[in-house]
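Renewal narrative, Specific Aim 1. Our central claim is that a sequence can be written position by position from structural information alone. The example that follows is taken directly from our test logs and has not been curated for this report. It begins with the structure tokens describing the chain, in the order in which they were read.
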């Protein structure tokens, strides 16, 4: 068999993408009406984001351990690489390490220091390496290299959602709210930061394009845009990026996973960009 790759639902990959690449996925959780519900639960209605008691939770150690055990059995001894959401943003990475400790060394956990398709691109690179017969260490390195080379930026209409979940300091929230600014966000060393500020959506979108062009304008790039109830705006951002970057394929546009949407709020956009070639096993 081959090394098996596990990820979590923060990766924002579709069920079709997961199946096509042989990826197993653990679900993050929503807390609603006192219930702990996997975010990919089909019973969740359309009004989940409007619930006043909405909060989120990481994938837990028990469910990760069970998923790792299944993957280990399928690997026939080749082992498992688990590619997860940044440990600075979620307790999932810590739970993953605890779950991996139960495997007698069979599971290698990669804290991607990424979110959204930053995790997704890393998981895809790991899956590609595994499909080519790479060993566990090389599969993990493919994930690490891709995650490190990927840029992830975002835009939110309001900082209220991020403040509610504790993802930004109160001082930053107060300034943003008082000035009615749109925040342009970035991931740096696995942590969420405010990269820039803009008065309008169009200017915020332009800031993201500028940041992307500065980092990836000279090389082939893979681009994914995830949105929270903002399909039209996601398409506009994708078109703007297409005009500035040398794309290695069509821009991948899809809704964000629910946990990400719960932290960013309605109208949020997140773009992740990876080099088309990173090491021996590119994710594209």
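The sequence written for that structure reads:
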């Amino acid at each position: 068999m081959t090394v098996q790759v596990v990820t979590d639902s923060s990766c924002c990959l579709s069920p079709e993408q997961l199946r096509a690449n042989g990826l197993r996925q653990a679900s993050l959780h929503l807390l609603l009406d006192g219930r702990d519900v996997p975010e990919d639960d089909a019973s969740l209605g359309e009004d989940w984001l409007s619930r006043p008691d909405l909060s989120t939770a990481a994938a837990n150690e028990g469910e990760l351990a069970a998923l790792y055990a299944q993957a280990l059995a399928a690997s026939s001894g080749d082992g498992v690489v688990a590619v997860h959401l940044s440990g600075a943003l979620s307790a999932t990475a810590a739970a993953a390490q605890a779950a991996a400790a139960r495997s007698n060394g069979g599971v290698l956990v990669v804290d991607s220091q990424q979110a959204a398709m930053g995790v997704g691109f890393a998981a895809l690179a790991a899956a590609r390496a595994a499909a080519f017969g790479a060993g566990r260490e090389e599969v993990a390195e493919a994930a690490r290299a891709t995650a490190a080379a990927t840029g992830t930026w975002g835009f939110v209409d309001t900082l209220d959602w991020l403040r509610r979940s504790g993802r930004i300091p109160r001082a930053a929230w107060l300034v943003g709210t008082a000035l009615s600014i749109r925040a342009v966000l970035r991931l740096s060393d696995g942590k969420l930061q405010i990269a820039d500020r803009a008065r309008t959506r169009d200017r915020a979108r332009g800031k993201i394009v500028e940041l992307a062009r500065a980092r990836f304008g000279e090389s082939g790039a893979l681009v994914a845009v995830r949105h929270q109830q903002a399909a039209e705006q996601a398409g506009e951002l994708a078109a703007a990026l297409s005009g500035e970057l040398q794309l290695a394929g069509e821009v991948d546009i899809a809704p964000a996973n629910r946990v990400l949407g719960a932290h960013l709020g309605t109208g949020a956009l997140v773009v992740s960009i990876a080099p088309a070639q990173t090491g021996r096993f590119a994710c594209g």
